[in-house]
Write a structure and sequence with these properties.
- With 171 residues, this protein is mainly alpha-helical.
- The chain contains seven helices and no strands.
- Helix 1 packs antiparallel against helix 2.
Length: 171
């Protein structure tokens, strides 16, 4: 479980009673897509003909541009996560990262799921002795890519949810 039991109003859109603007929601989705896309080759190396995770990343980006509905992106996320379920290791985590990124359109707080699964994918792909440092390096890369408008929000979310996200944000 990567979502808190009590939803943080900073990740609920204004129209639903929270404080998240549409612009920041889109930035969260794009950042999550970037996190997932960075590890997609780990999935595609194992399942080169399964396009579901890549399509999920493309769908959430299309959602941010207003080209598709939220439900289309959410559905693509579900398909990517279905691709993950039959796998193990880095490929599984990479597909889950893509799925989590796509469902940010529905629940913004899934942004950490995409990032956390990407870190887990990098760790799983690295030699055992290098896995922890590889994960920390990926965490730092993700943080460096955070847009200024959402930087403090995401970093605080990482601090608050690190324990339920396998402590991958200790970087």
């Amino acid at each position: 479980m990567i979502l808190p039991t009590i939803r943080d109003p900073r990740f609920i859109t204004l129209r639903r009673g929270g404080s998240l603007t549409d612009d920041d929601h889109h930035l969260l989705a794009l950042w999550a897509a970037d996190c997932a896309e960075a590890v997609l080759p780990l999935f595609e190396a194992v399942e080169p003909h399964d396009l579901r995770p890549r399509q999920a990343v493309e769908q959430v980006r299309a959602w941010t541009r207003g080209e598709i509905r939220m439900s289309d992106s959410r559905s693509a996320g579900g398909h990517a996560m279905a691709a993950a379920r039959v796998l193990s290791g880095a490929a599984r985590h990479a597909a889950f990262a893509a799925g989590q990124a796509a469902v940010v359109a529905h629940v913004a707080a899934h942004e950490l799921g995409a990032a956390a699964y990407a870190i887990k994918a990098v760790r799983a792909a690295a030699p055992k002795a290098e896995a922890e440092e590889a994960g920390r390096a990926e965490c730092r890369r993700q943080r460096a890519a955070l847009p200024d408008a959402i930087r403090d929000l995401v970093l605080d979310d990482q601090r608050l949810r690190n324990d339920i996200c396998w402590s991958v944000f200790d970087c």
